Give the backbone structure.
Amino acid sequence: MSKDARKQRVLFVDDEANFLNGIRRLLRSEARDWDMHFAQGAEEALAATEEFSFDVIVSDVSMPGKSGLELLAELQENPGTANIPVIILTGNAESDLKRRALNLGATDLLNKPVGREDLRARLRSVLKLKRYQDEILNYNALLEERVRERTAELENSRLDIVWRLAKAGEFRDEETGYHVMRVGWSSFAIARHLGLGERESEGILLTSPLHDIGKIGIPDGILLKQGSLTPEERETMQRHCEIGAAILLEEPKSDGNPLGSRWGLGAMGTTLDMDNAFLRMAADIALNHHEKWDGSGYPAGKPGESIPLPARIVSMADVYDALRSERSYKGAYDVDRCIEIIQGMKSTNFDPALVTVFMDTVEELEGIRARYAD
């Protein structure tokens, strides 16, 4: 045995001390490779399994108190011991005992008196199998850990792409990347105060930075114009909502590949699922974050609850941050003035229930502004 290899641990269970002493003498030569433990009864054996991790248990079937089969049943019910191989020893000639033992999960059944070579051979076989099983379990655990690490890397990469894509929309006008960060975390705070679950709130946090991605498609002459827009320019500007939704939910090409066969992804067996919850929420927010509760918003003039809730939340977070920020056409309003303005938009621009929640969230929103200051 390698000096680095752990001795395999064997537990023998019998109510007769003389039998256990006999086993100890029979297997004295195996002490170099096996760490042998002895328990007089099922309760003592169960206590031992709480202290040590065993590679095999050899138990008599007929014992005072709990029998060997009852011990086997308890071991199988416990996730921590269910994978330990159990060999049942018996002098009982009951014809269906082997069937009952195997049905309970026993690995093998030996009759008393058991011979030294037979016991050694059975134990070596079971212990070899257990070592292989442990190696497979350890390998699977390693694979699962690597999958988790890779999944985390992919998730971080995806979020990094979302963040950079969101900043791309903001870089084209005077708003900063910190604006979309503040809108994201502010939307998350409002969602949690509203009572939304962790998953939906995190979805809003991760997708809200893309609310203005459609600005990519607006000409500089309109997006960066100083002064008022003409009616035609305002109509073009308002198209950023629909452009953003179209970017996020682009229909697949006729060959089924969302990016088209020119990218060669089909040959790689790559499938891109564009119809997922993440993109749908992002598109809903991009399309509807300028809709108003009274139906006077754009692009579709949706009223009330026909506006998706994530878009209603992001709209309020977006407006609050814009009011609190300095722009070329205005200074930054103080908190009290912002509260006054938003309360004045209750039932016109904003969902009345969200305005109430907003009032309970202002202090947290200010903490977010301090954390992600320009």
Notes: The first strand starts at residue 8 and ends at 13. The chain has two domains: 8-142, 171-371.
